[in-house]
From TrEMBL:
Belongs to the heat shock protein 70 family. It comes from Clitoria ternatea. PANTHER family: HEAT SHOCK PROTEIN 70KDA. This is Heat shock protein 70. InterPro entries: ATPase_NBD (IPR043129), Heat_shock_70_CS (IPR018181), HSP70_C_sf (IPR029048), HSP70_peptide-bd_sf (IPR029047), Hsp_70_fam (IPR013126).
Length: 591
């Protein structure tokens, strides 16, 4: 966390919050809110491409995401205003993409065991799946939600932070801008070292800290040494996944690479060696496969499903064991990990003391035998009639849906009472009121962002317009037809507009639009007079010759020159002062 360019704090309930500078204010956001902003941006991109509104979505998550993380992701979709049709695991989405690709080659026939190695920017998953035509069944998954490409970057950053400290007796820790620059440089270096023929690369960061230009180099061998434990961790999880699936590595037909970090040569070498020299499958784009698979699933769940995927069947497994805390803090597993979902399982419990009137039920996930080392998902208190120890019969039911989200209920049965309780207050999960507040704030930020976008576009339009006009009047054919007085008038207007841009950095959209119109009016007045051949103090040979065809040809030629500088488009699309130019364009075309 010390290398992150932002700060993370805890709220009153020990839930992490991210500190962000927004509009010169320090804002506090939950992870769900940040995720919702990313989803909103993706929604905007999709809508711009499709030309229609997008409300439904399939969201992918790392296979090893626990129940709390899956619920939080779904909450983020709600905050973004999306109807989350399904949460699916990333390796499964990649397997869908791979399964469809297999149909186009000889390997598409018959049952195949496919191992998906998914190493992205922040998480790592491995999955073993069986693909039989359109039936995809997950056999086992393993992973680490705290291991990804950024961890390789962090090792390089640590290395260069120490080098900078050693060389210049200065510490970069605490300088978020310097760390941001260094992170970008380290990521570029990692990408360079991932190229087959690159064994060494350089790090170059201008003015990294207190004006110091930092230059260094790193070899692929050093990079691999710095990250040896990360590579070992990856391979350990590969072995764990195969062990859970009760499958020998010789029975794996294909090894599919997903995620940008799988381009690292050392990882490819380790995988190939582990699978006895088997060629790694690179037939699908590691950056796009997951999104492609999610789109296919979305198509299946919607009315847009075509016949190629109508029969698609996907069966996932739960990544972690789920159970209850029993007497002494011991974990009683109800649903073991790697159980096919959806699933519904139950168990019967009783009391430990005479005449108990309530029972506290703790729900955990994890693989440790003691609950103190597992993740608490939620708890609830259930009222029961007093009875001797061991008499009450409390049936607890665990149900996992298609998205891997857990629903728990408990029923106490006696001659007088039948009660059912469902967990509603999950540990660390946002309440309904918090989600509604965040939805409202997301709309507010969306409106602010739209205003900011329009302001920046107006600012850029003014700046571009000013430079386009300057380029136009400096063109030899335009310049030769303008008097010194007219050139000075236009240049003064340009200088004034650019000065206002420099001084009024926080001006609003309307201010920039007004400045652009002022600049346009000055330019229009001079340029229209020039095109029409009116007296501007400079003899015009075409006008002197006097023929209407010559005048029409001259107008058309000048308009074409102005068109090179996008001035006609600017006038017609942006400014309100267009009457003169529209008439000129019409005249020139008709002539």
């Amino acid at each position: 966390m010390k290398l992150w360019p932002f700060k993370v704090i805890s709220d009153a309930n020990d839930k992490p919050m991210i500190l962000v500078n927004y509009n010169y204010e320090v804002k506090h956001f939950y992870a769900e809110e940040i995720t919702s902003m990313v989803l909103t941006k993706m929604q905007e991109i999709a809508e711009a491409y499709l030309g229609s509104k997008v409300k439904d979505a399939v969201i992918t998550v790392p296979a090893y995401f626990n129940d709390s993380q899956r619920r939080a992701t779904k909450d983020a979709g709600t905050i973004a205003g999306l109807n989350v049709m399904r949460i699916i695991n990333e390796p499964t989405a990649a397997a869908i993409a791979y399964g469809l690709d297999m149909k186009d080659c000889d390997s598409g026939s018959g049952r195949r065991n496919v191992f998906v190695f998914d190493l992205g920017g922040g998480t790592f998953d491995v999955s073993l799946l069986t693909i039989d035509k359109q039936d995809i069944q997950v056999k086992a998954i393993a992973g680490d939600t705290h291991l990804g490409g950024e961890d390789f970057d962090n090792r390089m950053m640590d290395y260069f932070v120490k080098e900078f400290r050693r060389k210049y007796k200065m510490d970069l820790i605490g300088n978020s801008k310097a760390l941001g620059k260094l992170r970008i440089a380290c990521e570029k270096a990692k990408r360079a070292l991932s190229c087959v023929n690159t064994l060494e690369t350089t790090i170059e960061v201008d003015s990294l800290h207190e004006g110091i230009d930092f230059y260094s180099s790193i070899s692929r061998a050093k990079f691999e040494e710095l990250n040896k434990d990360h590579f070992d961790r990856c391979m350990k999880l590969v072995e764990e996944c195969l062990k859970d699936a009760k499958m020998d590595k010789c029975d794996v037909d294909d090894v599919v690479l997903v995620g940008g970090s799988t381009r690292i040569p050392k990882l490819q070498q380790l995988l190939k060696n582990f699978f006895n020299g088997k060629d790694l499958c690179k037939c699908i784009n590691p950056d796009e496969a997951i999104a492609y698979g999610a789109a296919v699933m979305a198509s299946k769940l919607s009315d847009e499903c075509n016949e190629n995927i109508q029969g698609l069947s996907v069966k996932e497994v739960t990544p972690l064991s789920l159970g209850l805390q029993t007497n002494g803090g011991i974990m009683k597993t109800i649903i073991p990990r790697n159980t096919l979902i959806p699933i519904k399982m139950e168990n019967v419990f009783t009391t430990h003391f005479d005449n108990q009137t309530n029972i506290l039920i703790h729900v955990y996930e994890g693989e440790r035998q003691t609950t103190t080392h597992n993740n608490l998902l939620g708890m609830f208190v259930m009222q029961i009639p007093p009875a001797p120890r061991g008499v009450p019969q409390i049936r607890v039911c665990f149900e996992i849906d298609d998205e891997g989200i857990l629903h728990v209920s408990a029923t106490e049965r006696s001659k007088t009472i039948s009660e059912k309780v469902i967990i509603i207050n999950d540990k660390g999960r946002l309440s309904r009121e918090e989600i509604e507040r965040m939805i409202s704030e997301a709309e507010k930020y969306k409106a602010r962002d739209e205003e900011y976008r329009k302001k920046i576009e107006a600012r850029n339009a003014l700046e571009n317009h000013a430079y386009n006009i300057r380029d136009a009047i400096n063109h030899h054919e335009i310049s030769s037809r303008l008097s010194l007085e007219d050139k000075k008038k236009i240049n003064n207007a340009i200088d004034y507009a650019l000065k206002r841009l420099e001084v009024n950095v926080d001006a609003e959209q309307g201010d920039f639009d007004s400045m652009r119109k002022v600049l346009s009016s000055v330019f229009d007045q001079v340029i229209v007079k020039m095109i029409n051949g009116k007296d501007n103090g400079v003899p015009d040979q075409d006008t002197v010759s006097g023929t209407s065809s010559d005048n029409g040809s001259r107008k058309k030629r000048l308009l074409l020159i102005l068109g090179k500088f996008a001035l006609q488009a600017v006038y017609s699309a942006i400014t309100g002062n267009i009457i003169g130019f529209v008439s000129i364009i019409i005249d020139s075309v008709s002539s």
